[in-house]
Amino acid sequence: MSHPSGDRKAETRSMIFLAARKVFSEKGYYKAQIADIVRESGTSTGSVYAHFKDKQDLFRQIIRETLDSLRSRLKELSDTSPPGDIRERVSRWQPGFEAFFDYIEDNPEQVLFIIRGGFGVDEETENTIWEFFRAFASDIAEDVRRWEGLGYIEGANAVLVGHIITGMCIHVGLSYLLERQFTREEAIGSLLAVTRSLVLQYLTDKGRRELGYLPELKR
């Protein structure tokens, strides 16, 4: 049975969290004030400081929870059995890109304030964001290393491949939110095509057979 006071604290924290995301997204980190967050959330200054040390602490916690939620969702979609099943993993690229766009469409304010407002706040905040971006790339690199160990690919720098895919997703997602010069379907289709082309160049004959590609002719 939940405790009423605990429920109220959780509800208040959630209200502050939601309000802060909106205020940070609209005003940026430096222009946003605790008073703005109090007004938007309908809470009190005391309530904000009861849950967070200061504006910086609130900002960092939003970043961590936002990116951790997205990473967990993408990892859940990428799980395959057995873990090294390249055919099944590749078949999940599109659902993964779909989930990424679902996320940025459902949470545009969060994405914009993290990417546009997070850098330049302070070194610790920048490191927090970069650690998550590096973690996304690391998750992709883990697949690449596993496939190389199974003989499906060779010659790829796993870390570089991870950063290339992560970087293009972030850039395309941000452009989609800010400019809308292409549709969601066009973005996902292009991300899929580029990712396939990138991985294709490292496939061995074994990898090509596994994915249904004809082996390259030997020169």
Overview features:
Arc Repressor Mutant, subunit A; about 75% helix; about 220 residues; mainly alpha; Tetracycline Repressor, domain 2; elongated
Question: Can you describe what's shown?
Answer:
With 219 residues, the chain is an all-alpha fold. It has 2 domains: 1-52, Homeodomain-like (Arc Repressor Mutant, subunit A, Orthogonal Bundle); 59-211, Tetracycline Repressor, domain 2, CATH 1.10.357.10. The chain is 77% helix and 0% strand. The protein is elongated, with a radius of gyration of 21 Å.
Helices and strands in order:
Layout: H1 4-31, H2 34-41, H3 45-51, H4 55-78, H5 86-91, H6 93-106, H7 108-117, H8 123-149, H9 158-178, H10 184-200, H11 205-211
Largest sheet: none
Which overall shape is indicated by the principal axes computed on the Cα atoms? Answer: elongated
- Topology as a string of helices (H) and strands (E): HHHHHHHHHHH
Computed Rg: 21 Å
Number of strands: 0
CATH superfamily of the largest domain: Tetracycline Repressor, domain 2
Strand content: under 5%
Number of domains: 2
CATH fold description of the largest domain: Tetracycline Repressor, domain 2
